[in-house]
Amino acid sequence: MDSLEFYRQFSEFTYPGLYQEELKKLPDDVRELGKILRQNFIHRTSIEGPKGLNNSDKRFGDLSKMPWWRQPEDDILQTSGAMLTELYHRDERGFVIDRAMEDKLVLTCRYVAIMTASILKSKGIPTRVRAGHTTYFDMGDLGDVSTDHWINQYWSNEENRWVTIDVDGSLSITKDVDPFDIQPGEFDFAADAWLGVRDGSLDPRHYYNAGGFYGLIVVAWSLFYDFHSLMNSEIIYMHYPKIMPKVDKLPDNISEIDELAHLMSDPDKNFKKLQDMWEDKPDLRLLRGSLL
Question: Cβ of 200: how many Cβ atoms within 10 Å?
């Protein structure tokens, strides 16, 4: 199976189940599709922070109408099928531009990326989820950090290239970046960040994640999220590979991670080698965390 056919395939996370035919009816235009998706999801930071924060134009809707008791649903709706079931449960119309605030799903970037992939794959478009870091959000008092983030790439036959898009961040980008055609250098892919920190050209303290951590360990988490996503296995935040002795500790010998990062720096050229590592390296594929 070539790489494009591979990325047409659903994973256990992106498979939409009985909703596949409904997803095919959604707009083919990625910008229009992204706008609809974003009106059905609300990020946890929107409901946890001040209700007027960066929302004077109501881009996130009327946050005052979100019930006080709503909490993030990342731990509950971990697959496309689960998200779709709850979307239709709350509003039988499914994806709609006028979804009531109280009926939106409260989910973070991984989940929007999984849903985006699920829809595009339903339309037969090769799509993959990617994990890395970005500086195109306003991080407030944290300053100019590169924060962890999940996005998508889809294959454009017309342009013969992967197009990088950020549906979840499309309403939040504060720099001159097109969320539906992110250019090289505007998103820090995890492999490039890892290799830069390892060779000393990048400052590890530049990299941050939502758990409040900084440094190479943060880049490592993104690297493994990205590796699993490239292999059509978009693991949840609570899981990490067996090569790491603890969630916050790198292995003593990290040469195997260096090798992985070098291959991931050009995942299309090295697609077969990455698949070989996926099949032959249990410490990179088998997971720890949660109940594992």
Answer: 8
